[in-house]
C-alpha cells in the first residue's frame, strides 16, 4: 500500500445510504494524483465495495482516460453490451444509451460473460439537472436478504440469458461482437459458451447459461452476481414490453432471463429481487468532475432516471474470469 494511505483513508466519509465519499485536491495534476493514491483508493474499494472521489474536476475524456488507466490493472473491451455505447478511446466508453426516463436496475457489468471487469470506473463530466445517480448495492447483503428458496434454486441451476440481435432495437451484431461477419460471430459464441441460431430474417438468437452466485476471487465471499432482474421482460416498462411482444413475439425479445433449466422467471420473483436491491441501495447525486470506483463483483450498480444533459464516462478494469470465482454451475466453452 502506498505511503499516502494513512492520510487518505481517515478522510473517507462513511454515511448511511451513501457510498463512501472522499474529497480530494489534485492541485491540477489529476492523473498524477490518481497514480500517487492508487493503492489507497483501491484499498477503500476493497473494504467497502465502492468509493466516490469528489473534487478531481474531471472535465474531458483525455484526462479521464489517463486517470482510469492509472487506477485500473488493465482495461478490457466492452463485448456483448445490451445497449450501444460511444467509444472515446480503447477501453473508455460513454455510459450505456438507455432512455433517460427509465430506471436502469441494479446489475453487475458483464455478469453474463466468461470474463468480466473486477473494477468499474465512472467519471461524471456533466451532471444532470435532476436524478441520474449511479447507485450501488452490496451483493453479499443482497444475497443474504433474498428468500433462501429462491437463491438455492439459482445456485443449483444458474440463470439463462436469451437475446435476439437485429438492426431495429438493442445492440446490433457489430456493437455486440465487434463484427457482422457470421463466421466470426459464431467463433466468438462457441469460445464463450453461447448457443446461437440464425433466423430466416437474418437476426441472431442466443442463449447462455451462467452462475447466479459466485465467490469473490479475493475474499471468497458469496455474491449475488447476475442480471436476472435487470434484463428480464418484467422489468421493462409495461407498454414497451407489450409492444415488443406484439412485434417480435415472446421468444424474440432483445433480451430476457430465465431459470437455468429454461423455466420462465415470474413477475413476482423479479419484483422481489428489485425490492431487495432497493432496500440495500446507496446513492449520491453526481456532481460534475466526480469519479466513482466500484468493485463489480462485490457491488451491483444502477442508473436512476434523470432530466437534463448527462455525460458519464465508463471503463471496465481488472479483467476477471468466471472460473476464478468458484461458480456454482459448470460452464464450458466449445
Can you give keywords for this protein?
334 residues; seven-stranded mixed sheet; four-stranded antiparallel sheet; 10 helices
Task: Describe the structure in your own words.
The chain is built from 10 helices and 19 strands. The chain is of the alpha+beta class and 334 residues long. This is TauD/TfdA family dioxygenase. Residues 1-20 are annotated as: Disordered.
Write a brief caption for the model.
The chain is an alpha+beta fold. It has helices at residues 5-8, 30-36, 38-48, 61-71, 139-145, 148-157, 173-177, 182-191, 238-248, 267-279, and strands spanning 21-23, 50-54, 87-89, 92-94, 104-107, 115-126, 130-131, 136-138, 159-165, 195-198, 204-210, 213-215, 222-224, 255-259, 281-282, 291-295, 299-303, 306-307, 311-321. 27% of the residues lie in helices and 27% in strands.
- Give the end-to-end Cα distance, rounded to a whole number of Å: 41 Å
Oligomeric status: single chain
The SSE order reads: HEHHEHEEEEEEHHEHHEEEEHEHEEEEE
Sheet having the most strands: 7 strands, mixed
State the helicity in percent bands: 25-40%
- CA radius of gyration is 19 Å
Helix and strand composition category? alpha+beta
Low-pLDDT regions: 1-6
What coarse outline follows from CA principal-axis ratios? globular
Mean pLDDT: 92
Number of helices: 10
Number of strands: 19
User: What percentage of the residues does DSSP assign to strands (E)?
Assistant: 25-35%
Spatial arrangement of strands, main beta sheet: 1-2-16-6-19-4-3
Cofactor: Fe(2+)
Protein name: TauD/TfdA family dioxygenase
GO molecular function: dioxygenase activity
Organism: Streptomyces phaeochromogenes
Amino acid at each position: 500500500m502506498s505511503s499516502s494511505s494513512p492520510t487518505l483513508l481517515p478522510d473517507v466519509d462513511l454515511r448511511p445510504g451513501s457510498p463512501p465519499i472522499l474529497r480530494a485536491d489534485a492541485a491540477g495534476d489529476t492523473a498524477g494524483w490518481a497514480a500517487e493514491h492508487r493503492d489507497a483508493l483501491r484499498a477503500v474499494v476493497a473494504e467497502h465495495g465502492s468509493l466516490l472521489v469528489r473534487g478531481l474536476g474531471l472535465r474531458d475524456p483525455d484526462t479521464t482516460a489517463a486517470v482510469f488507466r492509472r487506477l485500473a490493472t488493465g482495461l478490457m473491451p466492452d463485448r456483448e453490451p445490451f445497449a450501444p455505447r460511444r467509444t472515446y478511446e480503447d477501453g473508455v466508453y460513454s455510459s450505456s444509451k438507455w432512455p433517460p426516463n427509465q430506471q436502469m436496475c441494479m446489475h453487475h457489468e458483464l455478469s453474463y460473460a466468461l470474463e468480466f471487469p473486477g473494477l468499474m470506473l465512472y467519471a461524471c463530466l456533466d451532471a444532470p439537472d435532476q436524478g441520474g445517480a449511479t447507485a450501488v448495492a452490496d451483493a453479499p447483503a443482497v444475497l443474504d436478504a433474498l428468500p433462501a428458496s429462491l437463491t438455492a434454486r439459482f445456485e443449483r441451476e444458474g440463470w439463462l440469458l436469451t437475446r435476439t440481435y437485429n438492426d431495429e432495437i438493442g445492440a446490433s451484431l457489430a456493437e455486440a461482437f465487434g463484427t457482422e461477419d457470421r463466421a466470426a460471430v459464431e467463433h466468438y459464441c462457441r469460445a464463450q459458451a453461447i448457443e446461437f441460431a440464425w433466423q430466416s430474417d437474418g437476426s441472431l438468437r442466443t442463449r447462455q447459461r451462467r452462475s447466479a452466485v459466485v465467490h469473490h476471487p479475493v475474499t471468497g465471499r458469496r455474491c449475488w452476481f447476475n442480471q436476472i432482474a435487470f434484463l428480464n421482460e418484467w422489468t421493462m416498462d409495461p407498454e414497451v414490453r407489450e409492444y415488443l411482444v406484439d412485434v417480435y413475439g415472446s421468444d424474440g425479445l432483445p433480451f430476457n432471463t430465465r431459470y437455468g433449466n429454461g423455466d420462465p422467471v415470474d413477475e413476482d420473483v423479479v419484483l422481489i429481487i428489485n425490492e431487495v436491491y432497493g432496500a440495500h441501495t446507496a446513492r449520491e447525486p453526481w456532481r460534475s468532475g466526480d469519479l466513482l470506483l466500484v468493485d463489480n463483483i462485490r457491488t451491483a450498480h444502477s442508473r436512476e432516471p434523470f432530466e437534463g444533459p448527462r455525460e458519464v464516462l465508463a471503463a471496465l478494469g481488472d479483467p476477471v474470469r468466471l472460473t476464478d470465482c468458484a461458480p456454482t454451475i459448470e460452464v464450458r466453452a466449445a
